[in-house]
Each structure stands twice: as C-alpha cells, then as structure tokens.
Specification:
154 residues; alpha+beta; 1 helix; 8 strands; 21% helix; elongated
C-alpha cells in the first residue's frame, strides 16, 4: 500500500516536472526567436551653447538575442503637419546585446531643418521609432514629465 502511494506521488511529480520543463523551453524559444522587444528607459534633450543641443535615448533589449539598430527617428505633429525627423542613422548597425541597455545620442545640432519653430521640446508628444533593418518598432507618444513618467515600451 505504501509502495503504491509513493509510486503514484513519484509519477505525479514526474508529470509536473515535465510540464514545467516544457513551459520553460517554450518561453525560452519565444524570447530567443520571436521576441524583438526594445524598451525605452528615458529620453531627453541636453543643451550646450558650445557643442550644440542633442537628444539622448536609453534603450533596453528585452529579448535573448541581439538586436541591430539601423535608424532612430521621431514622428512629430506640429500645427497639423507630421514631421519625420531622423535622430541617428548607422551605416553599420548598432548592436544591442540581450538584456543590455544602450545610450543613443544624436549628433549635436543648433536647429532641425524644415521646422520653423523652437525645437527645444521636439521630443515632447512625439513618437519614437526604431528601424531594426527588416522591422520597425514604434513607441507611444513621449509625454512631458519626469523620467519615471516617460517610460514607454516600444
């Protein structure tokens, strides 16, 4: 009687362990092959009278594979007109390794061509886009506020 009960418990534990291993394997496969998720940690303007202004973006790779970045851009609506603003273009892709954070800084600028207004708040209420070669991820609009309020997932 006790031997049969122990055998039943052993079989149940074996089935549960096999199921757990299956779930872990499927989740790892998803993170390795299918997930290409970037998360924006923060974005802000940095001002310098000597070097020029620039925009800095911190991105985190939330997958188990490296993600190449070819281009980073903003979509901004100003007075009913949408502007496509390239922030950074890489000739050789920038590679973000799995679960790493990287900083992307634009080249210093004094003005953004084609926009006839002050660009000190160009990143506010704009949509961040990341071109990863074959795919493109778009983030939510970046609202004015603190860094913790501006955390958006791409």
């Amino acid at each position: 009687m006790i031997g049969e009960t122990l055998q039943l418990i052993s079989d149940i534990v074996g089935v549960v362990a096999d199921f757990c291993i299956l779930v872990i394997t499927v989740f790892t496969l998803y993170l390795t092959v299918f997930a290409s998720k970037l998360s924006m940690i923060s974005m802000g303007m940095y001002y310098s009278a000597f070097y020029g202004d620039n925009i800095r973006i911190f991105l985190k790779n939330k997958s188990l594979h490296s993600i190449p970045i070819k281009k980073v851009f903003l979509l901004k609506e100003i007075e009913g007109i949408f502007y496509y603003i390239e922030l950074k273009v890489y000739e050789d892709p920038l590679i973000i390794d799995s679960w790493h954070i990287t900083r992307i800084s634009t080249d210093p600028f004094t003005e953004i061509t084609g926009i006839e207004r002050d660009t000190s708040d160009i990143h506010i209420n704009a949509v961040l886009g990341v071109d990863m070669g074959g795919t493109c991820q778009m983030g939510k609009a970046i609202q004015e506020g603190t860094t913790s309020q501006s955390k958006k997932s791409l």
